[in-house]
Design goal:
Blueprint: H1 2-56, H2 62-65, H3 72-86, H4 107-120
Helix pairs in contact: 1-3
Length: 121
């Protein structure tokens, strides 16, 4: 009689473990499907926003490219357009101030970031 109870308990334990494992696998596939669907949707929106910003930005002339510094107003417009593109084209963005910050990043870190960005293109 005790052997039957032990076998029954082991069977119930194994069945419970199989059910939990199957549900975890199902949940994993559902999350993966959601990631693929929403990533594809967000990628289209981001591409569209970047194209829209680039389409409205005039190409600089050769004489303007030789300038070392941009005009402050142009800098504000470019930065505001970039922020708007990242936030999905919201119109309620107000730029209060822009402060230049010195770059203390080591050369090896800059090179690594550059290689990472080139790998994503």
């Amino acid at each position: 009689m005790d052997t039957n109870k032990l076998l029954y308990a082991l069977f119930i334990t194994a069945l419970g473990m199989v059910i939990v494992f199957a549900l975890l696998m199902l949940l994993r596939y559902i999350i993966e499907l959601m990631r693929v669907i929403f990533e594809h949707k967000n990628k289209k929106e981001k591409d569209h926003a970047v194209i829209e910003v680039l389409a409205h930005t005039p190409m600089p002339l050769e004489s303007e490219q030789k300038k070392a510094d941009m005009d402050d107003n142009e800098l504000v417009v470019v930065l505001t357009a970039a922020v708007m593109a990242c936030l999905g084209g919201r119109n309620d963005i107000v730029v209060r101030s822009i402060t230049r910050v010195g770059d203390s990043t080591p050369v090896w870190a800059k090179t690594g970031r550059h290689e990472q960005m080139l790998g994503r293109l």
